Amino acid sequence: MKPENSLRQAVLWQILGVALGVGVLWVLARFFPVVDYITRAQRTVGELEFWGGVLYPLLYAACNILLLPAGGDGGRLTRADASRG
Fold it and tell me: CA-CA distance, 66 to 55, in Å (whole number)?
């Protein structure tokens, strides 16, 4: 097998892996209350005192990497937000 073909095949497998991962996350988000899990995890980490200070930035970074809402209200709209449009 030529090096170009193996590189092309490796890139194709990576793209397929990312697409599969995104698809699995999308399906899980449709069937499970992911935002509620994240909010509960934030509260639990916040109650861990010292270790909470260590783990909270890691949790927040993971939410940003996964493009999940990491706000304290779980990303829900308030009445003020809804009235603004």
Answer: 17
Predicted pLDDT of residue 52: 85
N- to C-terminal Cα distance for the chain? 57
- Supply φ then ψ for residue 2, to 5 degrees: -75, 150
pLDDT < 50 stretches in the chain: none
Angle (deg, nearest 10), helices 34-46 and 50-65: 160
Indicate whether this model's pTM tops 0.85: no
Give the C-alpha distances (Å, rounded to integers) separating 74 from 3, 6, 23, 50, 78: 48, 44, 22, 24, 11
